[in-house]
Amino acid sequence: MPKRPASHANFPHTRMRRTRSTGWSRRLVRENELSVNDLIWPLFVREGKKISEPIPSMPGVERHSIDHIAIKAAEAVELGIPAVALFPKTPADKKTDDGKEALNPDNLVNQAIRTIKAAVPEIGVIVDVALDPYTSHGHDGLLRDGVILNDETVELLARQAVVQAEAGADIVAPSDMMDGRVGAIREALDKKKFQNTQIMAYAAKYASAFYGPFRDAVGSGGVLQGDKKTYQMDPGNSDEAIREIALDIAEGADSIIVKPGMPYLDIIRRVHETFLIPIYAYQVSGEYSMLHAAAANGWLDLEAVMLESLIAFKRAGASGVWTYFAPEVAKIIRGITD
Ligand code: PBG
Questions:
Q1: Of all atoms in ligand 1, which is nearest to the CA of residue 232?
Q2: In 231-265, which positions are buried (b, 16+ CB within 10 angstroms) versus exposed (e)?
Q3: Inside any domain, residue 263
């Protein structure tokens, strides 16, 4: 056991409030800082033209048609946000049991990737690898007789990732929690000469009730048959997260995601102490909406809780955060008010 540091002088010699007594001093002793460079901005894509449609359960968040998504990406660049993540709301008539629209090079998300890369090539584009936007049953994988098929799903995910890389995705983010998908995706990408396409793995993704508003946003909630507990993790587990992450790293993940964020800060801290890999927290839809709802009631100060919730991820050991607050936070950090 390392020895504790020699005991500090006691009160009144030691006064912890001394360094807190002025703004300049608090800034000097500050241990963690939130930067625009820490932000990943998730965006929702829909079909149509010139549309930005509000999502009632996510105040301030909209689904954008592809022309508008390019404008949002340009806004991100302007604000210094390094990357956006795209989520499509697939029209119901394109959803099937086998989710084959996921492999369509011209599906909504692939069109959005191409449009953004043509308009603002300097931004990082991240896209989920999973079948849930495309399946009529709302699951991330193939469903047969009530069972989510692992290996058959992994084959499709590897093909989906290649199609997304061909569209120009910089980072593919498998969010499905199937076993072995990171390795299969890495091999498929490399075979097609996409050695430099990054994999940011949703490595520790919990079967959480905090995803509700997101499922409204992409239209997968109403159709979801059952729950995702046979592939997403049980909220009570921590050792299992470490095993999941060890596997994803061994399979070639470049970075990993812990999701949701705030209720899982202990996981972020533990992963940070266990592995040397960039960790991203996903502050999910329910966390976002919860803070908004309380603020709308006058119970919380939105700007203050937004910043406090985000610095918590940095303190826990995250390299960055996926957050729907990204543009607001970026403006605050940069001192822009509008
Ligand atoms: C789908 C996916 C989900 C989220 C990101 N990718 C939902 C789910 O697993 O059902 C949730 C994001 C959020 O709640 O903000 N694989």
A1: 9
A2: bbbeeeeeeebbebbebbbebebbbbbbbbbbebb
A3: yes
- Determine the structural domain holding residue 260 and report its residue range: 33-334
Per the domain annotation, does 21 fall within a domain?
A: no
Residue 324 has pLDDT above 80, yes or no: yes
Confidence class of residue 279 from pLDDT cuts 50, 70 and 90? very high
Q: Is the CB of 216 under 6 A from ligand 1?
A: no
pLDDT for residue 220:
79
**Token pair 């954008």: residue:** 64
108-149 pLDDT per residue, tens: 999 999 999 999 999 999 999 999 999 999 999 999 999 999
Nearest to 198 by CA among 277, 120, 131, 273: 277
Q: Is residue 199 assigned to a domain? A: yes
Q: Is 100 a catalytic residue?
A: no
Reported as a single tens digit per residue, the pLDDT across 204-218 is 999 999 999 999 999
In the chain, the number of structural domains is 1
For a pocket test of ligand 1, which of 132, 160, 177, 181 has the largest count of ligand atoms closer than 8 A to its C-beta? Answer: 132
Can you give the CATH number for the domain in which 174 is found? Answer: 3.20.20.70
162 in a structural domain? yes
Question: Which contacts qualify for 271-275: CB closer than 8 Å, 24 or more apart?
Answer: 271/204, 271/241, 271/242, 271/245, 271/317, 272/316, 272/317, 272/318, 273/317, 274/242, 274/245, 275/245, 275/246, 275/249
DSSP label at 293? H
The verdict on the CB of residue 248 being under 6 Å from ligand 1 is: no
- Out of 284, 289, 324, mutate this one to test ligand 1's pocket (max ligand atoms within 8 Å of CB): namely 284
The answer to whether 259 is a known catalytic residue is yes
What region, left, alpha or beta, does residue 57 occupy, with left being phi > 0 and alpha being psi -120 to 50 degrees? alpha
